[in-house]
Amino acid sequence: MMQNILSSAIWIEYECGRIEQDACYRQVAQHFSVPASEVAEAFSQARDSLQSNTDMISFIHKLKETSRGMLKVYAMSNVSKEDYAVLSTKLADWSVFNRVFTSGHAGMRKPDLNFYRHVLDEIKLAPEEAVFVDDKMVNVLAAKSLGITSIVFDNNSTVVRTLRKIMSGPVERGYGYLYRNAKHLDSITDSGDVIPDNFAQLLILDATQDRNLVNVQPHFQRTWNFFAEKPTHVPDGYFPNDLDTTSLALTVLRPHPEMVTSVLDEMAEYVNSDGTIQIMKNQFAKAPENLQTYFDRNKSRTDAVVGANVLACFYSFGRGQQLGRTLQMVHSVLLHRAYIQGTRYYSSPDVCLFYFGRLYQSSDDVHLKTTLGPLLKERTQERVGLSGSALDLAMRILTCDLLDMNCGIDRRALLDLQCEDGGWKAGFLYRYGSTGVNIGNRGVTTAMALKAIACSEKWPGAE
Fold first, then answer.
1. Long-range interactions of 24-31: CB distance < 8 A, separation 24+
2. How much is the pTM?
3. In terms of DSSP H, where are the helices of 181-256?
4. pLDDT tens profile 33-63
5. CA 283, CA 388: separation in Å to the nearest integer?
6. Biggest CA-to-CA distance, the chain
7. For 274-283, how does the pLDDT look when each residue is reduced to its tens digit (9 = 90+)?
8. Considering only CA atoms, which of 431, 324, 334 is closest in space to residue 375?
9. E strand or H helix at 266, and its extent?
10. Prior bond of 127 cis (ω within 30°)
């Protein structure tokens, strides 16, 4: 009977403030053949049984705090003046609302379109600027008919998830993930082992320019090790400082010029007689000389991407001409697509192309630009639209951007891969050369994705 009463014309008149409570109860009693005292008691008990949704209220407070005062929240309720006067003293934390609109005071109720228009006029918003949440489909459909983004409230988790997507854009959500996990953005192997490493921290810092997110030593050290702590998954536990991480640290942290010169001089000692790099075993039989990966002459390892990273470092400090044969090696790798299966330490072709692009971007040197530019653009174009991890897509977009290419299809795919928590899954950034164990980092992928989304906003058709 309660539902019948609530949907009756008498109750609608009462909720719209056209009749008072005593008159409403008398008419309801007469219409439904029940004592007026029982009607009054039933609604008194109903009011007393109502409980506030504390979890949702807490979530809305957090949304408002995150918005730094930009988000306003309003209540729009089918409730009489008398009932609202009671409820506003019983239910908790009405402060979450910037203003409450009741049918009793407005003289209109949901789903009357005029009630929605009245509220929009009062809060000075266009329909497309508002979001409406209600537990009744008829009210939601009415709001939608005016162009208001509308959500049916069925349970907390669904509504929270939907509101997060609506209230926060991908960039805001992505940075939310990074700041919630600041200083804990460690790498992880494909078997689930956590690996604190310097390389990932430097990449995150390079992409975000925010030291608050990362664990990077405040004082620059001469040469750097991939591992930030004790090496793991390494035979005998020995892992020397490497040219790859050192090159990245030099270009990201930009230490004193005297130290840069000293470190580059030491790195140059690890270039073999003709300056070339041995790409991968058996890929180029006539590449006997190489630029080594480690500051250890007894641990001779080579990798095309490591070579490109070292060369980018030299170019960024005006010394790229010292490694001229290394540039020719990178060109050969691009020409013969020797990166398609990855390299010793980098398994993804998109990651490889990203670092080749980083080399291309490291200097305005004409010889560098003419040697790599046309071929790098051609090889990058071949990757556009292909499937890949979020890291692959982000690095592909960044490479396209520096080459003035549009890959909107990859931008849309990247946005679709954003996770519920605002971050992106960790694609495999690199791997152990000896064991093939893959290593990824959600912080790196998220930082790269955010940078990719930002730089691609200028593309025609970008949403």
1. 24/80
2. 0.67
3. 198-208, 243-253
4. 999 898 888 888 888 778 888 899 999 988 8
5. 25
6. 105
7. 554 332 222 3
8. 334
9. helix 257-268
10. no
